[in-house]
Amino acid sequence: MLDRIVLDGFVWQSTVYDKQGNIVDQWEEHNLIPNEGVAFLMRSPFGDAQPVSNFYCGIFKGNYLPTAASKATDIPNIGEVTSYQEVSRPLWNKVFDGSNTFSNSSNPAIFTFTEEQTINGYFLVSSDIKGSSNGILLSIARLSTPKTVSEELKVKTRLSYLSGTSL
Hints:
This protein is mainly β. It has helices spanning 35-43, 75-78, and strands at residues 4-17, 23-30, 56-60, 95-96, 101-103, 109-112, 117-125, 137-149, 152-164. The strands form two sheets. Strands 1, 2, 4, 5, 6 and 9 form a six-stranded antiparallel sheet that branches. The chain is globular.
């Protein structure tokens, strides 16, 4: 019998490709699950939160430092990048591994850029509308260093739970 489950949080893995499909850059970042996301994750299994069918990946370019108090209503202030070809924010097409992880590794979120952008971070929100401040902010991650992207960015995101009898 386990006496605790620990939320390991989200990990964001990114790969930038050029027009020929060559890898230009890769990196990995860990996130902050803001209070809004923690509350959703805690309340959902017990039916105390409205069900959310899907979450969507977004990227931002602003000099924004996420905090535990970050919310979806902050999105207009973080400088969301919206100049990519996809009509809406890409779906976090997650799959459960049957054990302890949800991931979109087999179907990453794709951003196809129309112009060069410098990005500073990612977020996961329950609204697919670019620039929208609606929904639940489940994850937000600031990059350790800004990244320049000009072609295609593929983003894999995973959320894991760790279980055990001690920390």
